[in-house]
Amino acid sequence: MATKAFQKTFTRLEAITKATVSLEAEAVSNDELATVEGRLAQVVKTKGDTVTLQVFAGTEGIPTDAEVCFHGAPPTLKVSEQLSGRFFNAYGQPIDGGPEVEGEEREAGGPSVNPFKRKQPSELIPTGIAGIDLNNTLVSGQKIPFFADPDQPYNQVMADVALRADVDKIILGGMGLSNDDYLFFRHEFEAAGALDRIVSFVNTTEEPPVERLLIPDMALTAAEYFAVDKNEKVLVLLTDMTLYADALSIVSNRMDQIPSKDSMPGSLYSDLARIYEKAVQLPDGGSITIIAVTTLNDGDITHAIPDNTGYITEGQLFLRADSDTGKVIVDPFRSLSRLKQLVQGKKTRKDHSQVMNAGVRLYADAQNAKTKLENGFDLSDYDNRCLEYAKEYAVRLLSIDVNISIEEMLDTAWEIFAKYFSPAETGIKQALIDKYWKA
Amino acid sequence: MNTTGKVTGIVSNLVTVQVDGPVAENELCHIRTAGTELLAEVIKVKGDKASVQVFESTRGLRGGDEVVFLGRMLEATLGPGLLSSIYDGLENNLATMTGVFLKRGEYTDPLDHDRLWDFTPLASEGDKVSAADWLGEVKEGWLPHKIMVPFSFKGEFTVVSVAPAGRYNIDSTVAVLRNGDGEELNVTMVQKWPVKVAVKSYREKPRPSRIMETGVRVIDTFNPIAEGGTGFIPGPFGCGKTVLQHAIAKQGEADVIVMAACGERANEVVEIFTEFPELEDPHTGRKLMERTTIICNTSNMPVAAREASVYTAMTICEYYRAMGLRCLLLADSTSRWAQALREMSNRMEELPGADAFPVDLSAIISNFYSRAGMVVLGNGKTGAVTVIGTVSPAGGNLKEPVTEGTKKAARCFYALEQNRADQKRYPAVNPIDSYSKYLEYPEIRDYLNTMMEDNWVDKVSKAKVLVRRGKEMAEQINILGDDGVPMGYHEAFWKSEIIDFAFLQQDAFDKTDALCPFKRQKYMLDLILGICDRQYEFEDFEACRTYFKEIINCLRQMNYCEFESEAFEQHKDKLNKLLSSNNGN
Q: What pLDDT score does B583 carry?
């Protein structure tokens, strides 16, 4: 960070923890940035004359006589078209060897959009993956995470979705990304020839965890520049938000805050909401869509991180390995897109929502049949048909390696229904049966 | 002279202020920083240090910044023009704010001071009046909006004059009153009231005695909510809390709906103010937005204002109730409000209760719900505030402080169940665990038996028994296998599935099925119970399953058709043919 003329310098620390330092300083403002022995820090608490700073890179090796300079302003990012195609660290500094970006300096983590100025999201984002497009259709301006165990190929799926989506800019916010995954994203974007419409802010596992806390604000400040100033459709990818939340808990712990569920800070909901709620459909056509990753511990969605996330986001996409077919599928029960009805049947064919519901309901019947089978009971003819249906449904529609149009997905579904069931068994409205049933 | 002070401590939105004079609990203050004034509320005082929660971001605030105390609590501004408006938790009008982003320290007036209203006097010179008595009325949309003696006026007053019929703005004096000391007071169309204090200007608050129709079968028939009653909807995320609440907001039989979006998604609010101006109120045919006020403090807006938002919403409801109107308050979600309390309690380093929530959480919740109710006004007319809150239990586990605290306070419980949601059995209200205490009220039972039919409450109990029995049979079948149980088990199970699929489940996105008035609910329940009363004969359980699935299909097709339309009757004919084809008697 560049030094500025009006800096105040201090050289006596009163307390040091692994993530914070405290010192006596006057006229310091809340959320202001500072440099502690060359490392970036932010004011998180003021009590009398004592100021507590959160040091992003950790406090290892910081002495009590460390030099502390206050910058007089909260974190900022310089925004302009020059951001396109570039890779930055958590502080917004280039890590790709390119020059510094020139542009207007914007406050990171700034105010929210007035809800009244928002528009209702209404544009479909097709991904080619039927588990998403057919059952959990995405809409621009939506915020939705992938819930996945660490062994699921969530970053690959996310890269596929990003590159197939029809958007003007893709902004990657990588938190605790392994170096391999960072290179994977870089390679995927380059191979797709899409580098010029991508901006990346990356904190890898090699870098200090508390630095991650800056990544979403940086990524979303860039996103707001393109969406608000340039009226572009922006897709923001945030991976992995679980590691972001872990960093939050480290800081709150060092500040002696009383933890709530799962050792997470009591403000976890608000902290996550502040990020996800930046997703917006603006009146002048610009939009910010957020697709995030929340890794789970053994599929446990009751843990505070996925639980709070689920209450904030507009649905979730749940990845799991299907043991019957060996495919990774988008779980139709646990996945949900809350905005799907804004486009289903409006931007897609009229039979979309009924086909989706029937498909999932029959898949649920197959699960019941499976339970019966596991308990050693005879299966009825219907049960057997359900089981066969489930396999074909999983392979041809739920699997993440599907890449077809929504029209084809609907036709495939009708075809599979007709193969195993009678019209009445699907429970679909008669008018639609009359039109689409593949006798 | 106002008390002033200086900022001495800042942790997020909790600010400590050293004060130079008296301050009151919940008193408001302005913190002056960087050219703006941030509104804050006193939540704790110790010695000359006051802890205040700031309703805005505290970014850039400094130790030593000046504070001025305002000598009043957080107040709602009440007057014509509240309906159709969209406010934040502090009642700032979001529509009149400039710019795409919310600006810190920008406060806008809730009401339009230039608009003229057609005033008709109701009181006359010499009348004896007291707080909340009607002096005149204006038409707000199609609703008669009463101009009342302000709630804050204590004692009896004599009307000196009332303005003649005509067009006035809200600041015009529409009446002059004289109090016992001979002082004359001017009354305009606007009054203010502290949001955390219940409005008690009514004669009495009797037990509720009527049911509020919501058009949602699993509520109205199975566990109805009374007009002036309280209910809550807990459920894990993705179980359809918001869809259910929006359905109630669209179809609820009420004159005024206030929706408090408290710490929830902004897009859900957008959905309301995009769709409601287009949709019709099924009871009056007017546009839904005309009867709706939105209090919107979404999850990314300042946390402290979440608490204010539910109280602001409640005060607006109480204001309209005093006009003899039926109001419905929908608070989504009260858990976010409780979490805001937790964040503050945590920052003040108070000893925590269960799950780190403040220990008085359940008292705060029950105090809030107790402001609901049907009241008899001074003039003998009645008004009601019905409250339905949603609760977002952490991890979907109902044994958590907010659910438990709300269960003590609210009398209807609509438990949303993950299992039902997974199977897309919407609304995912569990028919067995949910309850309505109002069904135990003799006056409500009488009301239902008069409005629906003689033995209605018994019929509903019977349907519940059938559902419960079906569930037990399903468990037996699962344990013993399809072949291991008598045919009667299968029959009982499928009868409960008929009730589930054709009655409990309802498609909130289908125009026809979404709204089911009482008359239609009665028709369908009678039809379904008739089917369940019959005896059947089957060769095997497979035949039983196929047969009942076809019955369910007919009933569902009926639900999708206009009531008693040609298509509806066709499906019913098909159903009757099916029924007569199997006669086990």
A: 74
CA B242, B247, B250, B253 torsion: positive or negative?
A: negative
Contact B422 A425 (CB under 8 A): no
Q: What is the mean pLDDT of residues B239-260?
A: 93
**ipTM of the modeled complex:** 0.87
Structure confidence at residue A375 (pLDDT): 85
Region class of B35: left (phi > 0), else alpha (psi between -120 and 50), else beta: left
| CA-based nearest residue to B373, from B389, B387, B390 | B387
Burial B217-227 (b: 16+ CB within 10 A, else e): bbbbbbbbbbb
- Write the pLDDT tens digit of every residue in A292-318: 999 999 889 889 999 999 989 999 999
CA dihedral B206, B209, B215, B218 (to 10 degrees): 100
Provide φ and ψ at B483, rounded to 5°: -85, -15
Q: Over 60: is that where the pLDDT of A5 sits?
A: no
Site from A30, A70, A231 to mutate, B interface, most B CB atoms within 10 angstroms? A30
Contact across the interface for A302 and B395, Cβ inside 8 Å: yes
Q: Which residues, in sequence order, are bridge partners of residue A281?
A: A287
The residue assigned the tokens 């406050």 is: A107
CB B327 within 8 A of CB B313: no
Residue B495 has pLDDT above 80, yes or no: yes
Closest partner residue to A377 among B236, B397, B481, by Cβ? B481
pLDDT category, A2, cuts 50, 70, 90?
very low
**Taking 60 as the threshold, does the pLDDT of residue B585 lie above it?**
no
A118 → closest Cβ in B242, B270, B392: B270
State CA B242 to chain mean position distance: 12
- DSSP codes, B433-495: T-EEGGGG-HHHHHHHHHHT-TTHHHHHHHHHHHHHHHHHHHHHHHHH-GGGS-HHHHHHHHH
Q: Chain B residues with CB inside 8 Å of A430's CB? A: 557
Please tell me the number of Cα atoms within 13 Å of A127 on its side-chain side. Answer: 28
* Cβ-based contacts of B49 with chain A (< 8 Å): none
Per the CB < 8 Å rule, is B303 touching A307? Answer: no
Tokens, residue A42: 């932010």
Average pLDDT of the segment spanning B483-509 = 94
Q: How close does chain A come to B8, measured CA to CA in Å?
A: 5
Determine contact: B271 vs chain A, CB below 8 A. Answer: yes
Contact A315, A261 (CB under 8 A): no
The rounded mean pLDDT for chain B is 94
Helices B518-533 + B487-499 axis angle, to 10: 170
Q: Does B549 touch chain A (CB under 8 A)?
A: yes
Does the distance separating the beta carbons of A74 and B59 come in below 8 Å? yes
- pLDDT category at A1 given cuts 50, 70, 90 is very low
- The per-residue pLDDT of chain A, averaged, comes to 92
Please indicate whether, in this complex, the C-beta atoms of B271 and A112 are within 8 angstroms of each other: no
**Are B423 and A364 an interchain contact pair (Cβ–Cβ within 8 Å)?**
yes
Closest CB to A357 among B60, B424, B553: B424
Query: What pairs with residue B152 in β-bridges?
Result: none
Q: Tell me which residue in A112, A120, A269 faces B271 most closely, judged by beta carbons.
A: A120
Q: In this predicted structure, what is the pLDDT of residue B325? A: 97
Q: Do β-strands B28-33 and B36-46 pair in parallel, antiparallel, or remain unpaired?
A: antiparallel
Q: Which residue out of B31, B92, B237 would a mutagenesis test of the A interface target, given it has the greatest number of A Cβ atoms within 10 Å?
A: B237
C-alpha to C-alpha distance for A174 and A189, rounded to whole angstroms: 14
Cβ distance B12 to A267 less than 8 Å, yes or no, reads yes
Task: Give residue B498's pLDDT band: very low, low, confident or very high (50, 70, 90).
Answer: very high
Q: Which of B95, B97, B355 shows the shortest C-beta gap to A261?
A: B355
Using the predicted structure, report yes or no on whether residue A3 has a pLDDT greater than 50. Answer: no
